[in-house]
Amino acid sequence: MSADVERRLTELSAHLDVPPEPDLVAAVRERIRVAPRRRRLGPVVWTRRSIALAAALLVLASGIAVASYLGVRGIRIRVGESPTASPSPGATLDLGQRVSLRYARSIVRFPVRIPAVLGQPHDVYLSYRILGGQVTLAYRPGPGLPETSVGDVGLLLSEFQGSFSRSSIDKFVGQDQVHAVTVGGEPGFWIEGAHAVGYVDSVGNLMPDSLHLSGSALLWQIGSVTLRLESALPMEAAIRLAETVR
Amino acid sequence: MEGRPLEDAELIERTAAGDRDAYDEIVRRYQGVLFRAAYFVTRAAADAEDATQEAFVKAYRAIGSFRRGSPLKPWLLRIVTNEARNRVRSSARRANLSLRAAEDRRISGDAAPSPEAAALEREDRQRLIAAVNSLGEGERLAVAYRYFLGLEEADAATALGVARGTVKSRLSRAMGRLREQLAEPSSSVPSGGEV
Q1: Would you call A136 an interface residue with chain B, using a CB distance cutoff of 8 Å?
Q2: Using one digit for the tens of pLDDT, what is the confidence trace for B124-183?
Q3: Is the CB of B106 less than 8 angstroms away from the CB of A212?
């Protein structure tokens, strides 16, 4: 049946092996600056290596100036560093671009909330896989926040415009893995041991989304925003923490 | 008070007026979807990245001619699709679309579904992706833009540079082929998929 194939194709999109999206802002800016207006620059002239080399030279030439030049609106662009140079919680999890909280808030059209009990996140990621953007806050393990299956991550809080329902969840999660809960008076779900969940995005599409930690997830909504908390915390502790999100 | 994001139209106006920061924001906002589209066309990460960069440079040059009030995303996707197609013609190495290997690591010891159920799910996805890989380019890209990029038919048509009816008929033919392939016994579907 066609609807079934369509559903499976939509679900498949979350499982495709697509390379992580590169941060191209600095490279595009440089390419615009140096490219003669009428001449077409082919891939032979501007390979990835030469772009990286040019960017690295820029950084070497004027570290502070370039940092402030590239640091528009608080985004952190780490030109010239290898991905392992500055370990960051969640850097290996394909969560999107690492950005500042301020930048994420300037891009998405919903208020990005943080758990008051944890304060400022260690890192913030922005991805566009879900319509309207998805912001994920990453916290390192610490007192009261146990390590998860991903060692440097204690908790992930993802936020986006959309909703979920028992039926959107049941498409990806076994019934015995879902428990109805209440978070700050609002209905939510506690999901155990699943690896993907389904949301309904802001225009009504069913969107599958992978869970990133192999622990448990708490889903709830504040207005039109869905929040997902992933951690190794037991259910009651996760709910208590979620109730401090504001 | 949290800063509100600028509308695309405002960013376009500012870019046209020479504000490079505004264009940086456009790049940030759309680089993910453009790169993904380019990857579906080229199926090679380096080509996709290069096509995406070149598309943003061309879009910047052409921003003065961009029709005000039109949606920006399909226009950018049209440019990157053309750039990506040029790179397909100039290079021979193409991978098939495949599943993320990392998924296996997420299935922890006590996780449900059971390992057997998870293996079945994965096999189902392998069959589907092999069937998608076996489609001709027109149908494969219609499927990728509609379902993997989540575009409406009209936007997919703009991005692919064809009429909306063409996307509709390609999708309809693709659905027929996918259904046929999925109905066959699993042994008849090559596991890796072949273009």
Answers
A1: no
A2: 899 999 999 999 999 999 999 999 999 999 999 999 988 999 999 999 999 999 999 998
A3: yes
Region of A24 (left: φ > 0; alpha: ψ -120 to 50; beta: rest) is alpha
Between chains, do A23 and B2 touch, taking CB under 8 Å as contact?
A: no
Of A24, A43, A48, nearest to B87 by CB-CB distance is A43
Match 């996780």 to its residue by tokens: B111
Distance CA B97, CA B105 (A): 20
Query: Pairing relation of β-strands A196-201 and A186-192?
Result: unpaired
For residue range A158-196, list pLDDT tens digits in order: 999 888 888 888 877 777 888 999 999 888 999 987 777
Q: Is A30 exposed, middle or buried (0-12, 13-18, 19+ CB in 10 A)?
A: middle
Question: Inter-chain contact A6–B147, Cβ cutoff 8 Å?
Answer: yes
Number of domains present in the structure of chain A: 2
Range of the domain at A12: 2-74
Q: Is the ipTM of this complex over 0.90?
A: no
Q: How do residues A194-217 score in pLDDT, each as one tens digit?
A: 777 888 877 677 777 778 886 689
Q: Does residue A163 share a domain with residue A59?
A: no
Q: Which CATH number fits domain B115-188: 1.20.1560.10, 1.10.287.990, 1.10.10.10, 3.20.20.150?
A: 1.10.10.10
Partner B contacted by A27 (CB < 8 A)? yes
The CATH code that applies to domain B8-89 is: 1.10.1740.10
